[in-house]
Design a protein that fits this description.
The complex is a heterodimer of chains A (110) and B (125). Chain A is mostly beta strands. Chain A is built from no helices and 10 strands. In chain A, the strands form 2 sheets. In chain A, strands 2, 4, 5, 8, 9 and 10 form a 6-stranded mixed beta sheet that branches. In chain A, strands 1-3-7-6 form a 4-stranded antiparallel beta sheet, with no helix packed on it. In chain A, strand 6 and strand 7 form a beta hairpin. Chain B is mainly beta. Chain B contains no helices and 12 strands. In chain B, 0% of the residues lie in helices and 55% in strands. Chain B starts with a strand and ends with a strand. The chains are: A mainly beta (110), B mainly beta (125). At the A-B interface, strand 8 and strand 9 of A face strand 5 and strand 11 of B.
């Protein structure tokens, strides 16, 4: 049972825009920033979004993040086949004094 | 170029211990923290704990208290994770990842920006 809640799956066709949501609480997302990680099959996670809505160098601007209250979202526009991956949200939890992750959302590009 | 290079695959018996290493290169080892995250087969990511090498301070997720030890050797820029009393449900890929520091703690804004390639640990009798 993950501390952050994500819908297990999402899908879209090439070119579409998809949104992945992440729900937390006042001890994590409510007071700390959200990061998003992309995990391609068989590889290590990669930082996709930090600080709620910032992209590391090299991440396409098709990927965007947002946060409101105790929830966050990752949007992917202009969906491409190479975006098929698992996506995880994460935040620091002040009560647990630990990083907490969502259970992951498996994105399928139809 | 920052790289975190982990040690290789391990197969262990239940009740034994495993030690995984994570060698950092390409940047100042003592300017960052190293976190350990594991992923059981077909499952999500789970933070285990981490260490701030410059302070030699480690903290652990409550779930692993008492059987997890995280250490760092600044002279070899290597972090270590040792998990004892292994059980079959400890079978997972174990990752190390880098965190920036802010005011002597993990920088929660910047997240875990570089990851090792992962080490598969299989626990089986």
């Amino acid at each position: 049972q993950s501390v952050l809640t994500q819908t297990p799956s999402a899908s879209g066709t090439p070119g579409q825009r998809v949104t992945i949501s992440c729900s937390g609480s006042s001890s994590n997302i409510g007071i700390n920033t959200v990061n998003w990680y992309q995990q391609l099959p068989g590889t290590a996670p990669k930082l996709l979004i930090f600080g709620n809505d910032e992209r590391p160098s090299g991440v396409p601007d098709r990927f965007s993040g947002s946060k409101s209250g105790t929830s966050a979202s990752l949007a992917i526009s202009g969906l491409q086949s190479e975006d098929e991956a698992d996506y995880y949200c994460a935040a620091w939890d002040d009560s647990l004094d630990a990083w907490v992750f969502g259970g992951g959302t498996k994105l399928t590009v139809l | 170029q920052v790289q975190l290079m982990q040690s290789g695959t391990e197969v262990k018996k239940p009740g034994s211990s495993v030690k995984v290493s994570c060698k950092s290169s390409g940047d100042s080892f003592t300017s960052y923290a190293i976190a350990w995250v594991r992923q059981a087969p077909g499952q999500g990511l789970e933070w285990m704990g981490g260490i701030i090498p410059i302070f030699h301070t480690a903290n652990y997720a409550q779930k692993f208290q008492g059987r997890l030890t995280i250490a760092a050797d600044g002279s070899t820029t290597t972090a270590f994770m040792e998990l004892s009393s292994l059980r079959s449900d400890d079978t997972a890929v174990y990752y190390c990842a880098r965190s920036h520091l802010r005011l002597g703690h993990y920088d929660t804004f910047t997240g875990l920006d570089y990851w090792g390639q992962g080490t598969l640990v299989t626990v089986s009798s």
